[in-house]
Specification:
The chain is α/β, with parallel strands linked by helices. Helix content is 34%, strand content 25%. The chain binds zinc ion.
Length: 287
């Protein structure tokens, strides 16, 4: 496998940008098309082993607090409902496939409107989704041959930055969509002020992120995969004040602790915040 080949344009020439223990390898930028990606050398690992290793790394690096994550479930459900409401502006119903469906919050929120199916590479997460009654397969596309299409909607919320080849996933998504079907994709956006100012401490640098798109590179990949972009915006999401304080620790550990203590003292840790930091983009496209 060729790890330094650019997935977007096929070139082999990259510039080194930065290195941080939060990523699995050095961050490089393609000299031809400016796609940012993590240069991962080494043996191919089984997807499930990789997931275990990455979640351990996230804990080691203190990027994720399991207690905080556990208590965040109501806000994850709220964020999922808000994503579905937004999606309904573009499609009213039909068959929906979510690639990277995690523990199933989005699918649960969508099932009142759509016939749902999820795909999730992490076995533990897809088991949780199935236990909640969500129709979900363990694996990844294109390895998993999906024969339940064509779909009216394919959703990739924070998935494309994790996969070995975004181009292969979008090509397969295109094949699985109905004519005029809708693709919705959400991913970190690297052309933003936080990356420029904070460099390696930008919050989106975490061990299982491999690709970082700009507006330009994601538009090119979508166009070349056969999609016509209809809408593109930077979006925030609902979260608790508790999670916000914990995430601040990614920028500055001391600040994270101070804000966490303050939020508990003020009794506002369960308040809902909606922050749009401008570093996440949501795109709707048609086949
Ligand atoms: Zn390139």
């Amino acid at each position: 496998m060729d790890f330094d080949r650019c997935d977007l344009c096929g070139a082999h020439a990259t510039d080194f940008i930065l290195s941080t223990p939060r990523l699995e390898g050095p961050l490089v930028r393609c000299r031809e098309c400016s796609l940012y990606f993590v240069s991962v050398n080494g043996a191919k690992t089984e997807a499930s082993d990789l997931m275990d290793r990455l979640s351990e790394r996230a804990l080691e690096l203190d990027l994720v607090d399991p207690n905080v994550e556990q208590r965040e479930r109501p806000w994850r459900e709220l964020a999922a409902r808000e994503r579905v409401e937004d999606l309904l502006r573009f499609v009213k119903g039909g068959k929906l496939l979510e690639v990277g469906s995690s523990t199933g919050e989005l699918l649960l929120a969508a099932q009142g409107y759509f016939d749902i199916l999820g795909i999730e590479a992490d076995r533990a997460s897809s088991d949780v989704a199935r236990n909640r009654g969500v129709d979900c397969l363990t694996g990844s596309i294109p390895e998993l041959q999906i024969d339940r299409g064509p779909f009216d909607v394919i959703a990739l919320y924070h998935t494309i930055e994790h996969v070995p080849s975004p181009r292969k996933v979008l090509t397969e998504a295109h094949r699985l969509l109905k004519h005029d079907g809708c693709l919705v994709l959400e991913t970190p956006k690297i052309d933003n002020v936080w990356f420029r100012v904070l460099g390696p401490r930008w919050r989106q640098f975490i061990p299982d992120h491999r690709y970082f798109f700009s507006k330009e590179t994601i538009l090119r990949l979508l166009r070349e995969s056969g999609f016509e972009v209809k809408d593109m915006r930077s979006v925030g999401k609902a979260m608790s004040a508790r999670l916000f304080a914990s995430r601040l620790g990614r920028y500055h550990r001391g600040l994270g602790h101070v804000v966490t203590r303050a939020s508990y003292r003020l009794g506002i840790e369960d308040r809902t915040l909606r922050l749009n930091l401008g570093d996440v983009m949501r795109v709707y496209a048609r086949k």
